[in-house]
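We were asked to recover a plausible sequence for a given structure. The inputs and outputs are reproduced exactly as logged, with field labels preserved.

PROBLEM: sequence recovery
POSITIONS: 174
GIVEN STRUCTURE:
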């Protein structure tokens, strides 16, 4: 999938320039352990800081959300030309476009009006989805291959880092 930037004619009658800003290629895991639909995400917003925020689902890949180099299972923060935005907090060796990791299925992104913090809506692994406030370098904990046979979120909500704060959760029925 590509994220493309278009420059339109002044009268909006056509495209003057087309530029690929981000290219991702992922094959969804064939496992049906967490459903049959890949968690694609794909939400894009311009943040209050002028950078692009791109929410990427994990594509049902157990390794993707916690990988420092794969873009699936992340929220990226990039310039309009696709370069890493300054201020992303990454571990050594990580892709510098990554803003937050450990994301499963982002369904929406927005910004808190008073603080400009990123607000991320996610589809949960089973029946619980959530709305969270997240900061640069946060990790939501999603990892279908948790150690010790545990599956899903490796950390309980109470153990998530301070820079990832669930605000509200809801069930599929709600």
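RECOVERED SEQUENCE:
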């Amino acid at each position: 999938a590509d994220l493309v930037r278009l420059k339109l004619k002044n009268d909006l009658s056509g495209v003057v320039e087309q530029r690929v800003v981000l290219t991702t290629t992922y094959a969804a895991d064939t496992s049906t352990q967490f459903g049959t639909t890949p968690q694609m995400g794909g939400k894009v917003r311009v943040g209050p800081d002028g950078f692009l925020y791109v929410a990427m689902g994990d594509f049902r890949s157990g390794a993707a959300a916690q990988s420092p180099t794969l873009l699936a299972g992340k929220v990226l923060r990039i310039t309009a030309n696709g370069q890493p935005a300054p201020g992303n907090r990454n571990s050594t060796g990580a892709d510098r476009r990554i803003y937050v990791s450990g994301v499963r299925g982002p369904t929406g992104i927005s910004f808190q009006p008073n603080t400009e913090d990123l607000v991320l809506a996610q589809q949960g692994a089973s029946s619980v989805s959530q709305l969270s406030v997240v900061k640069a370098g946060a990790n939501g904990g999603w990892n279908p291959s948790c150690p010790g046979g545990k599956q899903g979120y490796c950390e309980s909500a109470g153990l998530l880092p301070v820079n990832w704060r669930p605000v509200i959760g809801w069930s599929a029925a709600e």
